[in-house]
Structure formats: structure tokens, C-alpha cells
Design goal:
This protein is α/β, with parallel strands linked by helices and 203 residues long. It has a single domain (6-195), classed as Rossmann fold (3-Layer(aba) Sandwich), CATH 3.40.50. 46% of the residues lie in helices and 16% in strands. The chain contains nine helices and five strands. It has helices spanning 19-27, 37-42, 49-58, 66-82, 102-108, 125-138, 147-161, 164-167, 182-193, and strands spanning 6-12, 32-36, 92-96, 112-121, 173-177. It has a five-stranded parallel beta sheet. Helix 1 (19-27) packs across helix 9 (182-193) and helix 4 packs parallel to helix 5 (102-108). The longest helix has 17 residues, at 66-82. It is globular, with a radius of gyration of 16 Å.
Length: 203
């Protein structure tokens, strides 16, 4: 199930649960490279054909089609490899925001070898919705400002994304409660990841 591609860790969970925060912190630690699918999408030229197509879906809280998602994701990752930002022989790839459904998980198997899945959980959906709305203001994300769109994203997550967890071996999935400060959550995340990190000086 893990595949033969880049050694990877998935940061998984519902919208607003803190995937990006934990991914960005991990990306500052030597030996990890954080690659968020949402950042790749937001960096697209919205006047380009790909940018217009992505916005047409994301602005409504819907998932971008799988083929387009994987194509943009691969192009972005190869760009990071080309400039040596991501060094596959030394770094664990930290994925955030992908795979969004079981088909994407299957499509990614030729690219990544999933070592761990950090499933960030939060039982308070209203708190996550509030977090997303506040993030929309602080990070200038207009797609996060509409509460109706946000609630639709949760429906899409439950129907399409949550089943991804059943696709992977349960022994590599670690549940982490996302309530607490970023540092408190990070400590729990690192406890799960210490066994898989390589020595960044080994290669």
C-alpha cells in the first residue's frame, strides 16, 4: 500500500483543523519538506486556464478534479526538486491537503511512499468554522470567507475525504487531538514522526 515513491507523511483532517500550521512548522525542521496542495493552487496565475479551472471549483467549496489536481501537484513538486528545495534522498515529504479522496490516494501511489498519517481531530466543528473565517481575514483567503461555502467543504470532507483513512493500513495512522496551542500539538505530532525521520546528514 505504501508505494515506492518519495518517503512521505500525510497531515490529514477536516477543514480548519490546523493541517497547514503543523505542516509549516514541520517544514522548518531539517529533514522535512512541507508541500501543501492549497499553496500550490493559490500560487497559480488565476488568469491562466488551470487557474480559472481551479478557482471555479474551490470558490464553491468543491474538490478540484483529480487529474488536474495531480498534474498541478506534480508540476509544483518537480519545481521544488529542480531548485533543491526538496531533496528526496534526505527529506521526508510532508503532504498537506492531498490526497482529498480515495482515487487521489491511489493515483499518488506511484509518487509517494506513505510512512505515517497524522490525523488531526477536533470534535468541535463550529470552532473550526470560526477558525477558518478568522484565517480568511488574516491570510487574505476570499475562498474561506463565505460560511455557506465553508459548511459545504465539511460535507465534501465527510463524503469524499474521510474515506481516505480506510485506504491506508491502520497501523500507520496516528490520531492527534488538535485542541491546544501549536506547540502542544506539535509535541504530539513529533512523537509520532520521530521513528520515521532520516538523518539529514546521512546522504
Amino acid at each position: 500500500m505504501a508505494g515506492e515513491g518519495y518517503d512521505s507523511v500525510l497531515i490529514f483532517g477536516a477543514p480548519g483543523v490546523g493541517k497547514g500550521t503543523q505542516g509549516r512548522i514541520l517544514g522548518q525542521i531539517p529533514g522535512f519538506f512541507h508541500f501543501a496542495c492549497g499553496d500550490v493552487f493559490r500560487a497559480l496565475d488565476m488568469s491562466s486556464a488551470e487557474g480559472k479551472e481551479v478557482y471555479a471549483y474551490s470558490s464553491k467549496g468543491e474538490l478540484v478534479p483529480d487529474d488536474l489536481t495531480i498534474r498541478i501537484w506534480e508540476k509544483g513538486l518537480n519545481g521544488h526538486i529542480a531548485v533543491s528545495a526538496f531533496r528526496p534522498k534526505q527529506d521526508i515529504l510532508v503532504l498537506d491537503g492531498i490526497p482529498r479522496n480515495v482515487l487521489q490516494a491511489k493515483m499518488l501511489e506511484s509518487y509517494v511512499s506513505v510512512q505515517r498519517i497524522i490525523h488531526l481531530t477536533c470534535s468541535d466543528e463550529e470552532a473550526m468554522i470560526d477558525r477558518i473565517k478568522r484565517r480568511a481575514i488574516s491570510e487574505n483567503r476570499p475562498d474561506d470567507a463565505n460560511e455557506q461555502v465553508i459548511r459545504h467543504r465539511f460535507e465534501v470532507y465527510r463524503e469524499e475525504s474521510a474515506p481516505v483513512l480506510d485506504h491506508y493500513p491502520q497501523e500507520i495512522i496516528f490520531q492527534v487531538d488538535s485542541i491546544g496551542t501549536p506547540v502542544e500539538i506539535l509535541r504530539k505530532v513529533l512523537d509520532c514522526l520521530i521513528p520515521v525521520q532520516k538523518n539529514p546528514m546521512a546522504d
